[in-house]
Amino acid sequence: MSWARQIHLKSQAELQTMREAGRINAEVLATVRALLKPGVSTADLNAAAEDVLRKHKCVSPFKGYGHPPFPTSITVSVNRELVHGIPSKKRILKEGDIVSIDCGTVLNGLVADSALTAGVGEISPEARNLLKVTEEALALGIEKMRVGNRTGDVSAAIQKHVESNGYFVTREYTGHGVGRQMHEGPQLPNYGKAGAGLPLKPGMTIAIEPMVLIGTEQTRILPDHWTVVSADGSLTAHFEHSVAVTEGDPLILTVP
Ligand code: MG
Ligand code: MG
What we know:
Blueprint (H helix, E strand, L loop, with lengths): L11 H22 L8 H14 L18 E5 L2 E3 L14 E10 L2 E10 L5 H19 L7 H14 L3 E2 L5 E3 L6 E5 L16 E4 L2 E3 L5 E3 L6 E3 L5 E3 L2 E4 L6 E2 L4
Antiparallel strand pairs: 1-3, 2-11, 3-4, 5-9, 6-7, 6-8, 8-13, 9-12, 10-11, 13-14
One magnesium ion binds next to loops.
């Protein structure tokens, strides 16, 4: 992926549309999350997501994306799968799994992108802590999305929280500008130096997405060409919000 991608500062009207797309994306994630039960297939989750998108006359930018074209509207990544898992009728959830659900919504040409990870039934204390730390890292990153800060301040806040809890962030996949396209500038890694990177400006919209692994920062891609797994098979988690920089507090676009 080339990161000479352009940064587009969004107008108020664009932000309003992205906020609406974000609301729909949040509805998709909440709907899918409510279905996380033993015996459900990951294809069932994609079907439920597509029902919500259809109701709102929206599509996900994931479907048909990349090479080979991604086949579904959401990604579903279970346990050691960090991101980009392909939903399948054969993949049946079981008690104790942790499941990352990632979706995008395009509304009137503008994109919102968010993800969450949740458990199926009762999960282990280790899995629970991984989810807690990853979601906290996202919140700490969002808090840095302010004029006067730089992208490195967001990255460093995420990395510091994850590593101080003994976990790892991936180096190979990053957050990204979002809006007129699913991926635009700036790139937002989950590691970095405070004070480094590009200055944050009002109208910047960035998908911040900590991707956290228990045992290693190394990943590999399965033969399906998409699914990214931890190299050591350890559990992983992923949370994401699309967030706008404003003159004041950060504006989270992908909440209900
Ligand atoms: Mg996403
Ligand atoms: Mg993203």
